[in-house]
């Protein structure tokens, strides 16, 4: 079978047996996978990253194993779990989960209710404006039929005041109505874009990863857990640094831990905290977990991984607790693939 090679929108080389709609000047047809290896194929990334970044401690060395993952849904974090390029991350970094889908549907339903209420209120206000204008027009017609000049002057003064009030109200209404329509239109566009991104993410099989030294590569999707917020990617053909799991005995209350991730535009940011406890398959921590940190590792001071940071739960009057899926759970779910 023919293999097609092309650069995606991020400048990353992609190898696939499925051509794009029409091969163009940017697409090379390769006779076999072994004939044209990808740029850097076979490179020892552990040596490359360590040589470039020169980690000064175990935390910085652990950060060499962490990367940013780009998907149609946005950005998240992942980390190498073997020296052969397997990458663990959260499912919701790559695809819309059932939980997120339900949450999104709830938010959209509430938004539609608010839009409907606002539309009704604006329609009622427009009707009131229309009634007010009719009353003004009727009042103006009756002015000339008043008996005395003084009565007509007073009526004209009153009419001028009410007309000014109507014009001010009408101008304000038009402005608010236009702003409302603009916001609704923008919201509809956002919903369509979200649905499009979700559809793309559901069928996407290759994801751009950005390593600690800012180099970009393409990793393929291996597995998505049907029951847990876990997914597995694979960077083929490279020797990679990886995080070794900490012993279960390391999960003790009060133990110091570090969360590594890629919040917003920051790269490999590290936050410190302690283990607050366990809750089912989760390790609870007060280490700061920001948007974009999802899929990153929660590690010990020795650089061993305890779990995968997955979400943050806000509590009343407190900033919130971070939750990480414990590595024993991760290995139980992904272990059969890692052993291959």
Description:
Helices cover 39% and strands 27% of the residues. The protein has helices at residues 45-53, 58-63, 91-94, 98-143, 149-203, 327-338, and strands at residues 3-7, 13-16, 27-30, 66-71, 74-80, 86-89, 206-210, 216-224, 231-234, 256-261, 269-279, 282-285, 297-299, 305-315, 318-326. The longest helix is centred in the middle third of the chain and has 55 residues, at 149-203. Mean pLDDT is 85; it is low at 1-5 and 17-38.
Form type: elongated
- What topology, given as strand order, has the largest sheet? 4-5-6-9-8-7
Structural class: alpha+beta
- Strand elements, count: 15
- The overall average pLDDT, rounded, is 85
Strand residue percentage: 25-35%
- Helical stretch count? 6
One letter per element, helices H and strands E, the order comes to: EEEHHEEEHHHEEEEEEEEEH
Poorly predicted runs: 1-5, 17-38
Helix content: 25-40%
> What is the radius of gyration?
30 Å
Features:
elongated, 340 residues, six-stranded antiparallel β-barrel, disordered N terminus, 39% helix, six-stranded antiparallel beta barrel, alpha+beta, 3 domains, Thrombin, subunit H
Topology diagram in text:
Blueprint: E1 3-7, E2 13-16, E3 27-30, H1 45-53, H2 58-63, E4 66-71, E5 74-80, E6 86-89, H3 91-94, H4 98-143, H5 149-203, E7 206-210, E8 216-224, E9 231-234, E10 256-261, E11 269-279, E12 282-285, E13 297-299, E14 305-315, E15 318-326, H6 327-338
Antiparallel strand pairs: 1-2, 1-3, 4-5, 4-7, 5-6, 6-9, 7-8, 8-9, 10-11, 10-13, 11-12, 12-15, 13-14, 14-15
Helix pairs in contact: 4-5
């Amino acid at each position: 079978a023919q293999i097609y090679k092309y650069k995606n929108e991020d400048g990353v080389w992609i190898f696939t047996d499925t051509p794009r709609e029409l091969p163009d000047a940017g697409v090379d047809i390769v006779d076999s996978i072994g004939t044209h290896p990808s740029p850097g194929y076979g490179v020892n990334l552990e040596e490359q990253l360590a040589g470039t970044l020169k980690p000064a401690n175990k935390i910085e060395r652990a950060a060499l194993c962490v990367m940013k993952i780009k998907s149609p849904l946005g950005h998240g974090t992942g980390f190498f779990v073997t020296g052969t390029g397997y990458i663990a991350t959260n499912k919701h970094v790559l695809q819309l989960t059932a939980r997120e889908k339900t949450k999104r549907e709830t938010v959209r339903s509430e938004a539609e209710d608010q839009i409907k209420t606002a539309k009704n209120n604006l329609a009622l206000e427009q009707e009131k404006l229309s009634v007010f204008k009719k009353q003004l027009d009727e009042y103006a017609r009756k002015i000339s039929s008043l008996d005395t000049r003084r009565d007509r002057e007073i009526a004209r003064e009153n009419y001028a005041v009410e007309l000014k009030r109507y014009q001010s109200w009408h101008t304000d209404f038009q402005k608010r109505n236009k702003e409302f329509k603009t916001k609704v239109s923008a919201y509809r566009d956002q919903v369509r874009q979200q649905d499009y991104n979700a559809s793309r993410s559901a069928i996407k099989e290759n994801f751009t990863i950005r390593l600690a030294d800012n180099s970009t590569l393409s990793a393929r999707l291996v597995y998505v857990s049907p029951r847990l917020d876990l997914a597995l990617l694979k960077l083929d053909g490279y020797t990679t640094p990886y995080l070794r799991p900490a012993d279960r005995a390391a999960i003790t209350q009060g133990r110091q831990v570090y969360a590594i991730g890629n919040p917003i535009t920051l790269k490999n940011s590290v936050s410190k905290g302690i283990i607050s406890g366990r809750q089912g398959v989760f390790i609870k921590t007060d280490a700061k977990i920001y948007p974009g940190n999802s899929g990153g590792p929660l590690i010990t001071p020795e650089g061993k991984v305890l779990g995968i940071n997955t979400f943050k739960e806000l509590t009343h009057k407190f900033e919130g607790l971070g939750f990480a899926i414990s590595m024993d759970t991760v290995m139980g779910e992904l272990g059969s693939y890692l052993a291959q």
